[in-house]
């Protein structure tokens, strides 16, 4: 069985929060980090979450493009 350390628990905690949709800034505060760069060391994203984000890209781009269209001057 692998040894569990406080350091590994911090990684697990941060990763679980990322997977549940919490922001890096929220996790930064909970871990007590001053810098968000430190938080990124602890918070890992799963391949499934990255794939879901990539799959959502067409919808995100389509929605933002609609919002950026100039109003008709009829």
TrEMBL record:
GO molecular function: DNA binding
Gene Ontology BP terms: DNA integration; DNA recombination
Tyr recombinase domain residues: 1-55
Keywords recorded for this protein, A-Z: DNA recombination
Domain of life (superkingdom): Bacteria
rRNA-binding listed as a keyword: no
Listed name of the protein: DNA integration/recombination/inversion protein
């Amino acid at each position: 069985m692998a040894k569990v350390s406080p350091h590994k628990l911090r990684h697990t905690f941060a990763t679980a929060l990322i997977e549940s949709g919490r922001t890096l800034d929220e996790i930064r505060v909970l871990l007590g980090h001053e810098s968000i760069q430190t938080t990124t060391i602890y918070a890992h994203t799963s391949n499934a979450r990255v794939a879901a984000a990539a799959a959502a890209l067409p919808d995100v781009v389509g929605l933002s493009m609609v919002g950026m269209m100039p109003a008709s001057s009829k």
